Amino acid sequence: MKIEGIDHIEFYVADAEQSAVQLRDGYGFTVRGRSGPGARQAGYHSVLTRHGAITILFTSAHDPGHPAARYVARHGDGPAVIAFSVADGLACFAEAVRRGAKPASPASGPGLARGTVLGFGDVAHRFVTRQDPASPFTPGPSAGPAAAGPAAACARPAWLHGIDHLTLCLAPGQLAGTARTYHDVFGFSRTFAEPISAGGQTLNSVVLQSPSGTVTLSLLEPEAGTGPGQVTDFLAAHGGPGIQRIAFRTADIVAAIRGCARGGVSFPAMPDSYYDTLAERVGPGIPVDTLRKLRVLADQDGWGWMFQAFATPQHTRRTFGYQLVERRGALSFRPHDLPALCASAPGQH
Question: In the predicted model, is pLDDT for residue 79 greater than 90?
Fold first, then answer.
């Protein structure tokens, strides 16, 4: 199957309106729609937000039997559905099931076909085909002008241009099987694999990418027998495997950080020693003093530089958070800056 990109990400949250406000104020998203009366009768409420090519849907449950209610009770707020753009949603759904995926639900509607299968943990994947971009957004809200109300759109510059990658945290012993599932069912290939020492814990890491190169997943698993660390902390607080980070791609990380900071987003301090060492490398294109002030991490591969900034999690359990990434030629994903991140604020990442 050919996955063309991420159509949208659906979060299950306790309060969809409040979650949309946080994304609007902090990251410049706009509210593009809300679920109608029929959704409320079905026991849920959704708010659709967008920023550039990024679409995030927040869904909260009024019915305790709704999947969002069960997810929030177990994990707190978090990304529960990653929807892939494909040429034929129903055909991809059928093919994924044939390859061994557990089905959740097939569905179709005017101008849209989709089907959902389970991915890992309590995270599902939805295959979406949009024959008419103006067709109603399913599930729930209709795409269109920004809605009025407490989470109304706010005119902001387009700092963010897409989703660079997602970081998945897995329990010990789950990485190999999860990577195999994404290869066998979804066609992802391994682009990077390396053990990492971070915060006193050894992590096994694998980076997977869709054949189109549009979807990248970074998988982290604590090595059995190692001490506590950021991934085991996540697993305990989250109640099992889940998505720890969504990395937004930007063409100007300095402008993006300053814009997010004006909206109340904070970034944890990094050890000064990190920047002292960075100054000894080949110049990254952004002054080291600026990187230090804005708490930006920098790494280099054979093609160029990658800059990253990790926002302080606002999640009630301190599990999920957002990340900013700017690539200046860099093509690979290299999590070597993870030790510096862990040292900056233990127990918060």
Answer: yes
